[in-house]
Amino acid sequence: MKIAIAQVNTIIGDFKHNFDRIIYFANKAKGFLCDLIVFQELVVTGYPPHDLLEKKDFVDANLAWLDKLVSSIDGIGVVCGFVDKNPNDEGKPLYNAAALFEDGKILHKAYKRLLPTYDVFDERRYFEPGRSFEAFPYKGRRVGLTICEDVWNDKNFFRKRIYNVDPLSLMIKDGADLIINISSSIFHAGKMEFRWKMLGALSKKYSVPIIYANQVGGNDSFLFDGISTVFDRNGKVIARGRDFKEDFIVCDLKAAEASDDIHPVSGSETESLLKALIMGTRDYVKKCGFSKVIVGLSGGIDSALTAYIAVMALGPENVMAVFMPSQYTSGENSEDTKELAKNIGIDLMRIPINGIFKEFLKFLSPSFDESDPGITEQNIQARIRSTILMALSNRHGSLLLSTGNKSELAVGYCTLYGDMSGGLAVISDVSKTFVYELARYINTDKEYIPKRIIEKAPSAELKPGQLDQDDLPPYEILDSILKGYIEDFKSVEELVDMGFDKKLVKDIISRIDRNEYKRHQAAPCLKVTSKAFGYGRRYSIAKKISPYILPSPKIKLQAIFSRP
């Protein structure tokens, strides 16, 4: 059987766009004389549709467009994901479904059996799990049609499994000799290697080819890396799509040993993460209806990285940079900002804020002691800059990109309604130490980000001589503690056992917990780690700050109320 895989960059709810991409790739597969083309999970609707699934007209439209696909494509089999209705009175009203159709007829439907509810996933909110684990005959094969999570429950890979059934193993028992998995697997750093290892081992374990079709593109905070892959029965990769781009690959299972449709992917985690951020920025901006963005440059590394990503995503002609110096801004930062703008080919607007800041203080002076400036005066400067940037955003119809990193957002080292303002927080899931790594990688062949920006000590420049290290521990230490607490769920004791000072650990955790209210009001981020702030990390704002006090030993009531 000659099989094509198309990884499509869908737009959620844009049925016409998704339909057109499916038709395009189906015709391309026919040109390659393929027997079958496989598309990703929920390709008809776009993934994830969230509460659009509660709208009847959305579900009905998805079914109508599926019918149009079935009637529009002939001469080739098609596997694609869609939303189906549950005809039963009990359970959730919908299924996360896959259909195989050919020449105007739906030959088989499969419903997703394992519905994830961890991190950013909430599929049990909408879908009823499928109950069938049967393979079906197609062109001389017995096919096991699975959807994403259905193959993520092998006992050899998951020490603590969260489902009590393994659909893949049951399909193999039913005689499946070809596994197709349509997926919308959300990217995070390190996931690509694990996915390859798992799927390759599964194909080898059961001695069956696995066709893996994955979504590509950015939808809000969620990034999809694609890398659709075909594994032969020995676990060898015999076809592979690109990462972070729409792609099309072909594999002939009858001549698998001769297949060489293997497209290039990132060679390092740093390259992969940079591609993810560029793709995510491009898709968020364009899918939200914008074509241009604004970035406030400070002379620091965070805004420099954000500006570079914006240029790579949208082109220099679509990026407006604004430099807003104050009385505390160094000459070095002014020079570095000009050099950065020149290096990446963007226009730079300069708007000093000294006069505006003085006017603020003049009107506030009855309530302020000007002889003792503090954090309030620092925040005013950040909010003045935010007001200027938002005014330019409104005037020019451009999306403002905020520039804060994950380390700052974690401990609240940012100003609400100030530097946190924006429509997209491009690097807010990137630690400060990885910001530096990305900058050095970007400069591998050419100096885009001025060397001095990378080498100088970071500073908010909101008061004389200010440095980040005056308020925070070294970023190498801070980021290690943040990763342990936020991404690895380690306790104070476990972090101390790793060698960190207990007082420092408790202080950092307290800062994380206290600043939940800021993160609830932050712009959407681009998720690139296993645990990002936002949709997948849900904590109350009004709560007791950890570490939590354990109960005292039980007191015997008779001792308190005993008679004299």
Task: Please give the structural blueprint.
Blueprint: E1 2-7, H1 15-31, E2 36-38, H2 56-72, E3 77-85, E4 94-102, E5 105-111, E6 136-138, E7 141-147, H3 167-173, E8 178-183, H4 191-206, E9 210-214, E10 216-219, E11 222-225, E12 229-231, E13 237-240, E14 247-252, E15 261-262, H5 269-287, E16 293-297, H6 301-314, E17 319-323, H7 331-344, E18 347-350, H8 354-364, H9 375-396, E19 399-402, H10 406-411, E20 424-425, H11 432-442, H12 451-455, H13 468-471, H14 475-487, H15 492-497, H16 502-514, H17 516-519, H18 557-561
Parallel strand pairs: 1-2, 2-3, 7-8, 8-9, 13-15, 16-17, 16-19, 17-18, 19-20
Antiparallel strand pairs: 1-14, 3-4, 4-5, 6-7, 9-12, 10-11, 12-13
Helix pairs in contact: 1-2, 5-6, 5-11, 8-9
